[in-house]
Specification:
This protein has two domains: 54-179 and 308-333, Rossmann fold (3-Layer(aba) Sandwich); 181-306 and 342-414, Rossmann fold (3-Layer(aba) Sandwich), CATH 3.40.50. It contains twelve helices and 16 strands. It has helices at residues 91-105, 121-133, 146-155, 181-198, 213-229, 246-258, 272-279, 309-321, 358-369, 375-378, 400-404, 408-414; strands spanning 54-56, 66-68, 76-81, 109-114, 137-140, 160-164, 174-179, 203-208, 234-239, 263-266, 283-288, 300-306, 328-331, 338-341, 383-384, 390-392. The chain has a six-stranded parallel sheet, with helices on both faces. It has a six-stranded mixed sheet with strand order 9-8-10-11-12-14, with helices on both faces. The protein has a two-stranded antiparallel ribbon with strand order 1-2. The radius of gyration is 21 Å and the shape is globular. 55% of the residues are buried.
Length: 444
Amino acid sequence: MRKTILQVVVLTVAVAMVLSACATPATPAPAPATVAPAPATQAPAPAAATTAPTQVPAATATSAPISIPDIQSGKFNVAVVLIGYENDGGWSQAQTEGAKSMTTADPTINVGVVEAVNPGTDAENVMRALARKGFDLIIGTTFEYGPTMASLADEFPKVDWLHVSGYQSNSTNYGNLFGGMEDMKYIGGMIAGARAKADNNTKLGYVAPWPNPEVVRLGDAFMLGVKQTCPECTLEVRWINTWYDPDKEKQAAQSLLDAGADVILIGSDTPGPLVAAANAGKWALSYDYINSCSPAPKNCLGTEYWNWGIPELAIVKQIRAGTWKPGNVWLEPDSGIVGFYGFMPGQTPQPGVPASVIPLVQAKLALMLAGKFTYKDIFKGPITDNTGKIKIPAGQTLTVEDLFGIDAPTISSMGLTGRTACTTFCMPWLVDGIQGTLPAMPSQ
């Protein structure tokens, strides 16, 4: 997440007014009038600004304007542009809380958030307004913002731009950031396999947003982890063709549960599938946000989550010191960018995790956090796809470009720098144990 090519955002309240607040330890932020109230842990609002909020016209006549947060004089101002809502319990909340954690670490940093920004015209209008407002760093949180950010980085060379999950960079003021979530999905697979084995049910399910390299490789890593504890287990997939649609996410999970799945893997943005699993008396692994087990903790086997504040704070420090070199940043678990809830230091495994798998997971996770087990080990051959074809020969493994599916035409068409084209091992493809065929990406 992330997010990857050609996303269509299905937002049930896409025409609502989006209001966002910057974070400081001052006065509480009022809840946006047309957005669900924020939880008690929401960051407080900044002191009153000296200028009136900018209003960005929405793409359609029926949409309300989007409010642009104000900068704070004398601080380093960071704007986070979200594809979803900052309290979605998943991807966007992880992005929001990660960025806002920088203000706790360094009170001279101010963070503003803009929610529910569609790619294309909306994103261009919002990001241009943020740049004109005076933000020092603008962070875009979905792949589809890439072309817009690349263009605006040229238009506003004094503003720095960071794209979470993107491919593009310009070596001056535009870079991208992502990390090794494959490792955490592998851990989740080990746990799911052990749970299925204990329940004498070898059927697992995956709520998968898109048939693209990111979603597929994470499902593949999960399945390879499953094979460590339940070689006979299989994984059935429901492609929902959206990152964010709470109803559709739950419906997909319910379909998998009706088909007999014992454990649901979540690849979409909210913990809705966990709720569906809990209602059926089954299990799920939640995703993106450290607290996303909270809707049904007894049925949640753990969470593969992101810690965006750690790398983003490091980048802010580099920018302020004049040492940032924008490029293609891929970080492994030893950097702290990812974690698995229930097994990180100070955490306790979820009650549904079989006791037999706990020491195995602890040992594997320790290797990951020490940098001794990475995606190269997960995808080390021989690996067979679900048609029986040897996909990765013995002794060989993948590159980051393989994981992202960055081939020569992609490099050429997008003008990518610092990339070596993938060839034989390019994602996406399904590993042995995942049922069905890989559909084409829907036309947008």
